[in-house]
Amino acid sequence: MELVALRTFQTVVEEGGVLAASRKLNTVQSNVTGRIRRLEEELGVELFFRKGRGLELAPSGRVLLAYARRLLQLERQTAAAVRQIGESSGELRVGTMETFAALHLPGALKAVRSKHPLLELRVKTNTSAALAEAVLDHKLDCAFVAGPVTHPALTFQELVVEELVQVSAPGISPVTHPLIFFREGCAYRTRALTWQRTMGHAVSDAMEFGTLEGILGCVSVGLGWTLMPRAVVEQSGHADALVLEALPDEVGQVPTGMITLRDAPPMAAFKTLAEAVMAGAAR
Asked: What angle do CA 160, 185, 16 make, to 5 degrees?
């Protein structure tokens, strides 16, 4: 079973079809279909159900996808680890919450660039839940998420404790205005809903945004309220138009750190990232 065939199979699944996969892999469609066909012949199973021009992943394909991701991740990590012995090269795929990216990531990435100048960095923002899934699916090497995180396949290294505060415009009562938060999967969203219930706020009225700037912008003009790290709000361009109120520790103190796969080979860049985040937070 060739790695190129597994990489082609994974790309077809992730891109949603042969044509998109061929573009992603910079090859012709016949090469893609040929590799998939040979893989099916080798395994003696159908990996996809053909429906007209479309493809649907078969049960055997779902099993293979999980193993293909693990094998390809191991291949990439092996090559990166070997290269790093002498020259700190390779690729590092980092996931982060948007709020963490605004506060801590620039300095941490700068440290990686300085210490591992040949390391190629790829950064993706998402919610804590989505980032954890991406690490588990071998799509990210590490991710910065709100904790605590307890999963048998993941390690969680706490780096900082963020202080969440209640944020609103002057004269706005959270009891009578909607909660504004990130999309499903955000750890702050979960805490905000808990706080909303604790305070007896109406839970049916809410607004959902995908960006930090969108949330704070709407809060600043009195459309609602939110929970957000104090440092993020204080650094925002909307800070002068916002009122910050402290929260009880059980809601407001959020351990935040880096997750990696428990069985992943150690990478020197992980340590560089973690140390840079802690050093920056201590200043």
From this structure: 120
